[in-house]
Amino acid sequence: MSPTSFIADISLSNPDLMLVSTLQAIPDVSIETIYHAAATASVPSLFYSVRCDGTDRERLENVLADDPSIREATLIDDLGARWIYRMELASNQLLVVPRLVELGAAFLHARSTGEAWTIKTRMPDRETLAEFKSFCDESDIGFELQQLYRTARTGEDGAIGEHGLTAAQREALVTAYERGYFEEPRQASLRDLGEELDVSSTAVSGRLRRGTALLVEELVQPSSQGDTT
Q1: Cα separation of 216 and 226, whole Å?
Q2: Among 114, 116, 123, 185, which one is most buried in terms of CB atoms within 10 A?
Q3: Are the CB atoms for 213 and 225 separated by under 8 Å?
Q4: Which 3 state secondary structure label does DSSP give 18?
């Protein structure tokens, strides 16, 4: 039986959302989720990938220290072009993911878009989407539906992420892009990528091949995936 759920890309804006203070203070900062639980006061840690093309890490961390939405930001990994942080949220923080979970939706991914956030979520039905919009309206959160589409794909580990990619496929594609694998001439080999990701070059090749195929199917030929709104 074909699934009845769908993926929604939604832009959310409110000055009290996570890290908006940092987004406002550093215009060139780009932030996206690495792991995001249904954070509450008892589950305070969130993980983000942060990139600042024109800002050094010292300034970024000074701004993060003053961001009222988080209590503490701890550097987990320095990848050169980007940094991975574990962030503990403030106790009075305005959160949307817990409400999504309460409604039966699945949070998949979020990325900063200027001073707002674009989230990707799997909605079980349109009624759930309407309920989430009502929550945003009641919370003074700007809500803009950017894309709505169905997909029946599952990833190699059963988990669907942004554009149907698994976490491993997405990590391989991002790493390849950042290390210049797609440049001409190439600045990194499959072996280089495998060493960074701690997998074989064959595994990297497979993840890049499958991930690229998913992106082409999703973005270049969306009509092949069924209903698109």
Answers
A1: 15
A2: 123
A3: no
A4: coil
HSE, side-chain direction, 13 A CA sphere, residue 78: 6
Structure tokens at 20: 């908006």
Q: What is the pLDDT of residues 64-118, one digit of tens each?
A: 999 999 999 999 998 887 899 999 888 777 889 889 989 999 888 899 988 899 9
pTM of the model: 0.63
Instruction: Say if CB 44 and CB 89 are below 8 A apart.
Output: yes
Count of Cβ atoms closer than 10 Å to residue 190 Cβ: 18
Q: 209, 170 in Cβ contact below 8 A? A: no
**Strands 29-35 and 142-149, sheet pairing:** unpaired
Q: Return the bridge partners of 6, or none.
A: 123
Burial of 191 (0-12, 13-18, 19+ CB in 10 A): exposed
